[in-house]
Amino acid sequence: MKKLVIAAALTAAASTAYAGNLEEPVVEAPVVVEETQGSSQGIILPLILLVVVAAAVAAG
């Protein structure tokens, strides 16, 4: 009976000790956060085009 208990304990210890496999671990790419520009940066070009079109209409 004592040998059975020791064998069961060794079997339980051996089964929990093996937790790996032969495959390479999956490493996810790091997340890159880009800083956004101010909201006024994207409106300059449309305003310049609007001024140019308004000047062309006024001159014509």
- Looking at how many chains there are and whether they match, the oligomeric state comes to single chain
Which blocks of ≥5 consecutive residues have pLDDT under 50?
none
Mean pLDDT equals 78
Name the shape in a single word: rod-shaped
Give helix % range. Answer: 40-55%
Tell how many strands the DSSP assignment holds. Answer: 0
Overview of the structural elements:
This protein is an all-alpha fold and 60 residues long. It has one domain. Helices cover 53% and strands 0% of the residues. It contains 2 helices and no strands. The longest helix is centred in the N-terminal third of the chain and has 16 residues, at 2-17. The mean pLDDT is 78.
Task: Summarize the helices and strands and which ones pair or pack.
Layout lengths: L1 H16 L26 H16 L1
List keywords for this structure.
60 residues, mainly alpha, 2 helices, 53% helix
Short note summarizing the structure:
53% of the residues lie in helices and 0% in strands. With 60 residues, it is an all-alpha fold.
